[in-house]
Amino acid sequence: MSASKREEVISHLRYIRLELREMHQMLIQDDLIPDLNEAKEVHAQLGALHELLVNKGNKKIKIEFTEY
Predict the structure, then answer these.
(1) How many other C-beta atoms lie within 10 A of the C-beta of residue 38?
(2) pLDDT 10s per residue in the chain (68 long)?
(3) CA–CA separation, 40 vs 34, rounded Å?
(4) DSSP per-residue string spanning the chain
(5) Enclosing domain of residue 39
(6) Cα–Cα distance between 42 and 12 in angstroms, integer?
(7) Spatial CB neighbours of 45, under 8 Å, sequence gap ≥ 6
(8) How many domains does the chain have?
(9) What per-residue confidence (pLDDT) applies to 1?
(10) Which of 23, 48, 62, 68 falls between 20 and 30 A from 33, CA-CA?
C-alpha cells in the first residue's frame, strides 16, 4: 500500500474511532441516541474507507490470477 493511501486509511480510521467514541459516550452517560446525521456521517466515512480497501484488494487479485 502506498504511503499516501496508508495515510488516507489512517485518517479515516482516526475520524471513525473518534466519532464512534463520542456516540458511545452519549449512549452510556446521557442515555441518548446519537443524531441521525452523525450516524450517517460515520457511515459515509466507513464507505469511503471500504472503497479505498476494496480498490487495493482488487488490484492484488488481478495480479495473482495473471501469474497462474
Answers:
(1) 14
(2) 678 888 888 888 888 888 888 888 888 888 777 778 888 888 888 888 888 887 755 554 444 545 54
(3) 10
(4) --HHHHHHHHHHHHHHHHHHHHHHHIIIII--PPPHHHHHHHHHHHHHHHHHHHHHHHHHHHHHHHH-
(5) 3-67
(6) 10
(7) 12, 15, 16, 19
(8) 1
(9) 63
(10) 48
